[in-house]
Specification:
By secondary structure, the protein is mainly alpha-helical. It folds into 2 domains: about 70 residues, Arc Repressor Mutant, subunit A; about 140 residues, GntR ligand-binding domain-like (Four Helix Bundle (Hemerythrin (Met), subunit A)). About 60% of the residues lie in helices and about 5% in strands. It contains 9 helices and 5 strands, in the order ββαβααββαααααα. Helix 4 packs antiparallel against helix 9 and helix 8 packs antiparallel against helix 9. It is globular, with a radius of gyration of 23 Å.
Length: about 250
């Protein structure tokens, strides 16, 4: 695959990949080797491991979850190098931690860390709601309402797992409909952590019933283009989760 744009050398001397190439005008620019289109082993290992961690119920489990690098490489059918690189990336994102002479473990956030994550999320999502009232189409907002059509009229408790998925999709869509690429990027990694705690708490106390009522009120405010109310409702909804964690999530201690 040829690389267009930066690194194109049609009018300049050839250089080996990684070496700078001097153009006739004397301006140096990098000499780039072609990039393979297929995902690397590291990326595949990273994606598989991250998905597996997110799917775990790590907060109700009291046991530490240790990841065996050698075993993972065998399971993937690849060398240990891309697995090690994937682990390093996951550690930088706060999903695993390396303990000297012990190994690599999945991270369980403390109660205070979870509350801080939710508080940061409240700020991002409330701003996204503000932007939705200004930029989203009526059809896009209507799509939010359609997510919950199957859970009205007493069907919520009978399909809690499905509602949990819809709940997560709702919050992802709120961020996406902001159409602010910086906000979306900032929220991406944080939301993966939030996904785990939302899945854990949705069946606790009256969280599910309160959740769907909050969502309907948020959607109504968005449909009315009531910027101030939409922003406030989204922020209060997120901070309600923080309050729930502070009061009831003893398993995080």
């Amino acid at each position: 695959m040829s690389v267009k744009g930066i690194g194109t050398r049609s009018a300049s001397p050839r250089g080996r990949a990684g070496n700078a190439v001097r153009t006739p005008a004397g301006v140096e620019r990098p000499s780039l080797a072609p990039i393979e289109e297929s995902p690397s082993f590291k990326h595949k290992a990273y994606t598989a491991l991250k998905n597996a961690i997110v799917a775990m119920d790590i907060y109700h489990s009291r046991d530490e979850i240790r990841l065996d690098e050698r075993k993972l490489a065998q399971d993937f059918g690849i060398s240990r190098t891309p697995v090690r690189e994937a682990m390093a990336q996951l550690e930088s994102e706060g999903f695993v931690r390396s303990v000297p002479r012990r190994g690599i473990y999945v991270v369980r956030k403390t109660r205070q860390e979870v509350i801080e994550m939710i508080t940061a999320w409240a700020a991002l999502e409330s701003m996204a709601a503000r932007l939705i009232t200004q930029a989203a189409t009526d059809d896009e907002i209507e799509g939010l309402r359609e997510m919950f059509a199957a859970f009205i009229d007493g069907e919520l408790r009978a399909h809690l797992d499905e509602y949990s998925d819809a709940n997560i999709e709702f919050h992802q869509t709120i961020i996406r409909l902001s159409k602010n690429s910086v906000l979306i990027d900032l929220a991406a990694n944080l939301f993966t952590h939030m996904r785990m705690i939302r899945r854990t708490t949705i069946g606790e106390k009256d969280r599910a019933d309160r959740s769907i009522k909050d969502h309907m009120a948020i959607i109504e405010a968005l449909e009315a283009r009531d910027t101030k109310r939409a922003e406030q409702l989204v922020r209060d909804h997120a901070l309600g989760l923080a309050d729930h964690v502070a009061k009831f999530a003893d398993y995080l201690d």
